[in-house]
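input
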Amino acid sequence: MRFCRLISPESYRPAGHPASRLACFGLVLAALSISGCSAIIPLPSLLSRDDDATGSIGKSASPLSSSLDVEDWRRARAAMSVALDPQGNGAAVNWDNPRSGAKGVFTPVGDARPSDDRICRAFLAEIGGAAPAQSLQGVACRDKSGEWSVGEVKPWKKA
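output
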């Protein structure tokens, strides 16, 4: 309370007076509030790094091809889900987007296999239409929620 006596000497108020204590408490509270403004919060670490883009090159909407836009990938992913379904018949499934002209086909390869609490299945994908044709091979895995995610994808050369 020595600090409070400096700012509120007894000559103004008697020692222990409630107004004296209130003034001291208010001053300490104000000092603590102002000191909070000097704290540094590392805001960049709070932001997701997944949507980083450099220059004019944005993140691709599809893990298969940069030529597919968001709607193309939505349609392709739906076809991939049907084609790779372990309960399905293993037949190829086509998809297309009349608006962009993109189209393709997913063909499951082999049986589905369990891997780290997921079901994974290899596939072949043909992408074409408005963009240059691509033949790809890859693996996709379905998690417990039923969502498929594409793992490794690489170009595939037909025999």
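quick obs: Strands lie at 93-96, 103-115, 118-128, 134-142, 148-155.
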